[in-house]
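This part of the workshop introduces the protein records we will be handling. Each record describes a single protein and holds just a pair of labelled lines. Instead of coordinates, the fold is spelled out as a row of discrete tokens. To make this concrete, we reproduce a full record directly below:
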Amino acid sequence: MTTGKSEQPISPEGERTSEGGGAPARAKASASPSTPTTSHLLLNRELSLLEFNRRVLEEALDRSQPLLERVKFLSIFASNTDEFFMIRVSGLKEEVEADIKELSPDGLSPAQQLNAVREHMLPMFDEQARCLRDDIIPELRKQGIEIVSYQSLADYERRTLNDYFEKHIYPVLTPQAVDPAHPFPSIQNLSLNLGLMVQPLPEHGITSSLTGKVAPRFARVQIPPKVRRLVPVEEGGTRFVFAADVIAANVHSLFPRMHAGPSYLFRVTRDADVDIREDEARDLLHMMQQTLRKRRLGEPVRLEVTPGMPAEMVRYLTESLGLDAEDVYVGEGLLNVPDLMELYKLDRPDLKDKPIKATLPATLRGVGATSAIFDRIKQQDILLHHPYTSFGAVTDFIAAAARDPEVQAIKMCLYRTGARSPIPEALIEASEQGKQVTAIVELKARFDEENNIEWAQRLEDAGVHVVYGLLGLKTHCKLTLVIRREGDDLRRYMHIATGNYNPVTSTVYTDLGLLTADEQIGADATDLFNFLTGYSRQKEYRELMVAPVNLRQRMIALVEREAEHARAGRPARMVAKINRLADVQMVHTLYNASQAGVEIDMIIRGICMLRPGVPGLSESIRVRSIVGRFLEHSRVYYFANGGDEEVYTGSADLMSRNLSRRVEVLAPVKDPRLKKYLKDVVLASYLRDNTKARVLRSDGSYERVEIADGDEPFDAQMNFDGSASV
């Protein structure tokens, strides 16, 4: 797992480590009309998401972790929390303001959910601050890495920092005072700010007509996002001062002939889930560009302040932002914890995880980006398992398609590619060579819109056929189709994956990719791209499960088939490794299967609304979560099927949005070798994990798996070998 924006997942799903998924007011997950929604049968979606973030925080608290990895997990926790407020809390607040009375599937009103969220979050914030203050900072000091206050420095060190301020910070600062001519300023989302009171000196002052005294004013100074947040006391040294501390010490220089009072840090979180009215858009690209501008100044949902801020200033900020007292969070620690990720750049391998060496499956070694890769795929299906398998296998496949003169066409879905991905470059190269190239670019991939808009424009300029997906649906599937002339025939080659075409995240996500030349899957892929680019109303697929067309029905049928096997006394078991389970109809389908006797193991990274282990309801369902070094992102579905085992992999989780409001793909894994690897190596390892695994209890809490007497510690993520010939 890691942190940051599109190059560095928060969740969240930003897909980042956060378990986002659309604000409740705009994308409500509701049950099928025929599905019971008895509240005690379900866990609350929002609180389940917070429990995932609690597990992230626990990784930061774990003293067995390398020190800078603990800093990383604190940063992930903070970034996940930001996204939770921007997306989930903002949606709940909209429902409260709109006086929506509809209850969540577990029976809570929007107001009750907001209260529960605050109740759950306050202790986690306290724990984060305690960990940073009493544990991380002292341990960093022992390792020769210090974060010190400006006031604690010697005079000559302060002079050095003051000089740094004059040269590198002062020119980009914009102080903003509030008076009748200058209204309360717009505070950008997640910006870090100093608030203070400034007062004109008597000879330059503005006096009150009633008292004759000089009137103070509120002023705000934003810490510019491009300013280095940790300033080294000595060039190249490992003692640092926060830039905000340096600015606060020099704030008087921003207000000449004024008295500047003490300054206090504050931070505002805004609604970032801006509505996209696609049905009213003449040009979706233009609308998304406008949407990005609106996001920076969405409605405020949270105010964070430092403990010393005077109550009067807190009230002033709260009222000016249109917030309530319940929206204010007093940060005992650092307000913007991800600033500490600058420390992760230090050359201290002793304080980080040991790097893993990604390799290639034996069948792809020595092939590179040549036409020989197609011969290898034609001989056998190939399974890629990232980050253990080098992502070079994917880029080689696409680069080979771009350069091979026999390739006639390339069609590809791009959801999150990153700012520096070589894959769109390969598509541009293919187009310039006269190949038919089509790219489905999802402009609505939250927090990656800017990257995708830029790539869409560059691809169009190069002659690539760019399609922005389907009206009202996000195209979330990860699929590439290559059509190659071989003699008198055309042959189709596919890459179907669980993860995005992003080389950066491929090193920190666990993902799977299937390279295949299967004719039936190829025919389905062709039909799917026709569905995405034209007005096809394809309803039947030979092998693929495609949302929103048939995936929900097929998945329910597969689970119900296991129930029939169980009732008939045949082998009946289901194992699913997914990111989220939040579709009420699917939860009840799993309950029914459990009552029929199906043994069900769910490996769910984040949200789970199902209550496992409830007598008479879900006794045979076990749920565990793996939170470790890598973000668990792969999806695998295994069905015993009476002894005729089936395995599927692809992009879809069991959420309402994935089943009904997105284009998703699950593909069957047909090769017996690959099915065995997924069942007996991948799934079995996660079910065996006793180091990073937590087990979900029926009350919604998670407990770490205890190492049984005689067992050795087993970390599933450290058990895989990308060189395996799969």
